Structure formats: C-alpha cells, structure tokens
Amino acid sequence: MPGNSAGIYSVLDDERLVGDFFQNMGGAIDAGFSSSLLTEFPSDGEVEYHTWLAPVGPMREWKGEAVGRQLDQFKGMVRNTDYENTLAIPKSDERRDKTGIIRSRIGELGMTVGWQPDILTSALITNGESATGASEDGFRDLTGRCYDNQAFFDTDHAESGSNQTNDLTATEVPSANVSNTSAPTATEMEGIITETIGHLYGLFDAQGQPANGNARNFQVQVGNARYWAAAVAAVNNLNLASGASNRLAGMIASGQINVRVVFNPRLSSSALKLYVFIEDGPVGPFGSQTEVAPQLQEEDPGITKKYFLVMANGTHAAFYALWHKAAVVLLS
Hints:
phage-related protein like fold, five-stranded mixed β-sheet, globular
C-alpha cells in the first residue's frame, strides 16, 4: 500500500511529524512478512473485477498454421474497504510545545498503518480453509474464496483435470504425524517442511505442467513459539539431534532453495498448523489493491474541544490469488 502526504496540516505543520508518520509506516511494512506474498493490482473504484486466465502451455512443434490456444477464464471481484485510525491529541500538548510527545504518537500511528498488509493477509490465511462470500454476475468474491470457487486451502482444486490438495495432513506429509503436537522436534519439523515443499513442487496447472517448478524461495509461517523454535532449528542446523544430516538446511546452504521462517502470533488460533508459501513469480498467493493510498489528515473539532484529531486513513483490500503457491499442514 504505497503512501502519499495528501492532507491538511494546520496544526501538524512540522514536517518532522509527517516524516515520522511515513517513515514508521514504511519501516513496519519492510519488517512485515506480507510484501513477498502480496501482488499489488491497480484500483480506481469501489469494486474491481479480476479475470484470471489459465496458464499458457508449453511450446509445441509447429506444424502447418499456428493455432491460438483458448484459455479458461476465472472471474473474481474485490470490494475495497475504507479504513481509519484516529488519535485525539490534547491541544495543551501543542500549546506547551510537547513536540516530542506528539511525534511519538504520530510515529506509532504510522506504524499501525504499516501493519495493515500483515493484518489483512493473516486474516486470509486464518480463514483460508472455508469458502465464503457470494458471487455477483458470475464473479466470485475473492476476499472469501479462491478464483476456482473453492476454499483457498482445499482438497479438490480441479483446474488441472483432477483433484489436487493444498490442505494437507499426515496422508500427504507423513512427517506431520509427530510424537507431541504441542512441541514437535526439529527433526520432525525438518521432515514436515521438506515434504510440504516437495508437495508444492508436485502440483500441476491447467495445462498439465508443473505449477511451481521454478520455485526457489519459500516462507514458513507458524502461530506459536514452540513451532517457531523447531522450524528455525530445522532450517538452520546442519545436523539434527538424531545425528542425521539435515536435508533442508543442506539445500539452503548449497543455494538450491531459500526458506524464511515467520512467527506470526495472529495465527495463534491455528495452533497445530504450519503454512508454507512460495514467494517467487509475478503473482503471489495473495493479491492487494489500493484505491486511496494511506494519508495523514488533521482536524480541529472546534474551540469547545480540548483536543484535535489526527487521522490516518486509506481504502484498500487484500484477497486470495494463486492457491497452488500455498499449503497448510495439520500436525497430528
């Protein structure tokens, strides 16, 4: 969500205050996890209609006249939402030149705006195993379901011609059958992550081609500290407690793949689950659109009020994009 400095500054005429807002907003975005998962799409209205085309197939031998392929179409819609965060700052702080206090509050306000992409993406992840939202004139609500009309994490994505799953259990990921679901070991977590990445490599697109064959950058998300600790060890320790070599850390060390582990407390309700996302490619697992970029505005509500209002606001949305670039694993 790119920002601009649009707004009226009659009280906050100190450029440092505005600078603090956008600097903290940008810092929060950079420190978050969602920028590598969200693909920004242009938006200039309340509702945007997205037409998803099936992937282009491989080259074929040219015999006779070239024949253009007719690609399947998947239609989705995304409605932008207005968001705001407003502070009431005492006029006495301004009168008494408490610039340092005001700057800290404005900086924190910018930080909350920078958290917004992670907040919206976390909600998509948490709700990804259920399909919600109604269709409108054949356009599916992409904030509640995937473009193929399934839940984002589901067992029957069928655009390839047969059912494929990214909602995984120990059936697809044998290592997910752990000794203690509350505290998996680094050895178990190494198997879970490696097997899940392998599963993602094995998915096919609508043209019968590997959907993720070129993927090299992966993000693992968990919602509790014990899972995070085990995942960090699985990614970094070349030797496991069992004495076996760590396949996952070996692939990372040799440059074959890159794995980033994210502790996302907003997923705490998904206590027994681990998520793996692919960060490569022109389109990620999730999309975003911004009708009105984040901005900072100020208003004096009148002489009878002892405070002035400082508002950060914007109009945007996040939505489901490519299901085959994500997987959830339930430990058991």
